[in-house]
Specification:
Blueprint (H helix, E strand, L loop, with lengths): L2 H28 L3 H19 L2 H13 L1 H31 L2
């Protein structure tokens, strides 16, 4: 084996050891984030369920409209305002960021 090959083999071995150490550290640090990941998984599963069963939320909305039309319309107005505000903020940020490039 040439000195260059020995050097490369040692470098590969050091990198493999470092990689294993980094994986172990990541596993230890990730345990603190597991509740957040679990919550995100549950949210994703809930959204998938809603996509597969769209009639149930629509029926709940219709029932709420029949029972409390003012409350539903009030919340719809708040949602529309929030959506418009976020849309305007996002557009302004994109314009500002694209102008700085």
């Amino acid at each position: 084996m040439s000195p260059r090959q020995v050097e490369l083999a040692l470098k590969k071995q050091r990198l493999c050891l470092r990689s294993g150490s980094l994986r172990d550290n990541l596993g230890r640090y990730a345990t603190a984030w597991m509740p957040l990941f679990d919550g995100a998984d549950r949210l994703r599963d809930g959204l998938r369920w809603l996509r597969r069963h769209p009639l149930l939320p629509v029926a709940a909305l219709v029932a709420a409209l029949v029972a409390r039309p003012r409350g539903v319309l009030r919340w719809a107005g708040r949602g529309w305002f929030a959506w418009q505000s976020l849309h305007r903020l996002r557009t302004a940020l994109e314009v500002r960021l694209s102008g700085n490039r």
